Amino acid sequence: MITSCPNKACAAPQNFCRDGFFRRKDDSKMIQRYRCKTCGERFSAATFSEAFRQKRRRINGSLLKLLSSNVSQRRAAIFLGVNRKTIERRVPFLGKRCRRMNDRFLRKIAGNVHNIQIDDLITKENSKLKPLTVSIAVDEHRRSILGLEVSQIPAFGVLALPVLCFEVPSPCKACDLP
Question: pTM surpassing 0.85?
Fold first, then answer.
């Protein structure tokens, strides 16, 4: 539903009228066009859509299913018949869309969560000298993820000892270095 003119400098943004239609190339859908009576700005019903200016809207749903099914971006591009760069550009768009869906879901279940299970995982980034911890909170009844946090932790173990020795300005007694 169009409520106002998209021009921020418009004096009366609610003063607009219908100004014809156009056929969108991607899905051949007829889109209502509008014109602001105050500033003369022309806009359409698609101007306020989250997929505004996307040329291949039809791939959004399929791409989300493929990426959540652990299909690579390159393979998804082959399946959908589009360029790999198109897929690369859609990933941030789909990420924002999923973030909004998750926020909506969390607001809906707020106050109805009674038992939470928390788990922690230690993994690495590139080498053992860059360990990460991944903490996750899950609703026990619904088995839905409530929160996830990735954090850096200091290196530990045998490989971390020489690194710690070079960072300390005083002599290290553990490895007999001056």
Answer: no
